[in-house]
Structure formats: C-alpha cells, structure tokens
C-alpha cells in the first residue's frame, strides 16, 4: 500500500514538470506588442509682411525729392549735414504760396506750394512741389526749380494745370538787383511726377 502511494506521487511530479517545460519550449519570452504614437509636426503660420507705414496726415510732414535727394519735412522744416561731419547744414523749409486742387485726377484735393533750400552759402533756391492727397494722408512729388533768390508772386491751379508766377532777374544782372522780369511756369502731375508743360497742354 505504501509502495503504491510513492509510485503515484512520482508520476504526479513528472506530469507537473512536463507541463511546465511545454509552456516555455525555447526559453524566450513572447514580446508584448506596443503601439507607437505618431506626432505630426505642424508649421506655425507664417507672419504676414509688415504693413506699409501710413502717409503723413499733413503736407508739412511729407517727403519730397529735391535734386535727386529725398527730403522729409517735420513741421515744414528739414535740416541735414551739407557733407558727412560738416558743420554746414542744408536747410529746407516751406515758403508758402499754397494752391489747392485735384492735379492727378483722382477726385482728391492736392496741395501745391513753394519750398526754399539754403545750403549755407549766399543762395536761396526756390522750388515748387505738390502734396498728393491719398486715402490716409499725403505723398510728396519731386521738386521743380524756380530759381535762386527769385520773387514769388502767385500759385494757382486751373483744372489739372499748375501755374507758378514769380519774378527773376534779366540775364547778366547781378544778384543784388531786385528781380523784375515776370515769369509763369506751367506744370502738371504725370504718373505721380511733377513736370513742366506748355500753357494749355
């Protein structure tokens, strides 16, 4: 009886060992599948180009081209060095003689007026310019030279034509002689540029 119990116990142990060995035949663990999250990088929206600076609200603060140089007025005045490091100043200022009217056909009222420019010498040069009215302010044109130390008289606008009347000296007269020869200069705005024309053109 005791011998039979030992035999039965041995058979049971053998069966358990066989079952355990069959569960892991090659001794390697079965890998656990994992999901990998995919991160999609999104580009940040591009910044829009900076808006163009608005035009100045006053013609006294606009920029004008004089003899190929852009001059920006502040309250009707501009001062720059005559040369780098020079003590001499080129002074540009509003003289006046304003006339108002639509010179470029856009339905807005533009302003024509005179500027003077003094480079530190004896001369004072007179120019006529136009401040073109835009939706948000004024844009300046190029300047047209009238002459050195002339005597401005009137500035008027007839339709799309600008007329500047002034007096100058006769050829050969010294600059000390007061201007006495009447001159009328006719101008128009063409594609944003102030140009001389003939009367009624």
Structure explained in plain terms:
This protein is mainly β. Helices cover 11% and strands 41% of the residues. It contains one helix and twelve strands; from the N terminus they run αββββββββββββ. The strands form three sheets. Strands 3, 4, 5, 6, 7 and 8 form a six-stranded antiparallel β-sheet that branches. Strands 9-10-11-12 form a four-stranded antiparallel β-sheet, with no helix packed on it. A hairpin with a 7-residue loop joins β3 and β4. The longest helix has 22 residues.
Beta fraction: 35-45%
Class inferred from helices and paired strands: mainly beta
Assign a percent range to the helix content: 10-25%
Distance between the termini: 142 Å
List the helices and strands in order: HEEEEEEEEEEEE
Give the beta-strand count: 12
User: How much is the radius of gyration in Å?
Assistant: 45 Å
| Whole-number mean pLDDT | 82
Major sheet characteristics: 6 strands, antiparallel
Q: Provide the low-confidence segments as ranges.
A: 1-50
Helical segment count: 1
Query: What is the 3D form?
Result: flat
Primary descriptors:
single chain, 201 residues, mainly beta, 1 helix, 12 strands, flat, disordered N terminus
Question: How is this fold's topology laid out?
Answer:
Blueprint: H1 2-23, E1 63-66, E2 69-72, E3 77-81, E4 89-101, E5 110-118, E6 125-133, E7 138-140, E8 144-148, E9 151-158, E10 161-168, E11 181-190, E12 193-196
Antiparallel strand pairs: 1-2, 3-4, 4-5, 5-6, 6-7, 6-8, 9-10, 10-11, 11-12
Summarize the structure.
With 201 residues, the protein is mainly beta.
């Amino acid at each position: 009886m005791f011998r039979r119990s030992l035999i039965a116990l041995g058979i049971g142990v053998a069966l358990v060992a066989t079952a355990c060995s069959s569960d892991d035949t090659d001794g390697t663990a079965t890998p656990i599948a994992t999901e990998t999250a995919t991160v999609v990088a999104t580009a940040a929206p591009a910044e829009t180009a900076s808006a163009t600076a608005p035009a100045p609200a006053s013609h006294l603060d606009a920029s004008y081209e004089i003899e190929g140089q852009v001059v920006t007025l502040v309250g009707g005045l501009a001062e720059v060095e005559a040369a780098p490091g020079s003590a001499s100043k080129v002074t540009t200022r509003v003289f006046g003689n304003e006339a108002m009217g639509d010179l470029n056909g856009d339905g807005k009222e533009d302003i024509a007026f005179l500027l003077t420019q003094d480079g530190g010498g004896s001369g004072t040069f007179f120019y006529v310019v136009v401040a073109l009215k835009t939706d948000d302010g004024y844009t300046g044109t190029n300047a047209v030279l009238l002459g050195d130390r002339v005597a401005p008289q009137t500035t008027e606008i007839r339709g799309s034509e600008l007329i500047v009347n002034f007096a100058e000296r006769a050829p050969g007269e010294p600059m000390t002689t007061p201007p006495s020869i009447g001159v009328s200069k006719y101008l128009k705005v063409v594609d944003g540029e102030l140009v001389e024309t003939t009367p009624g053109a």
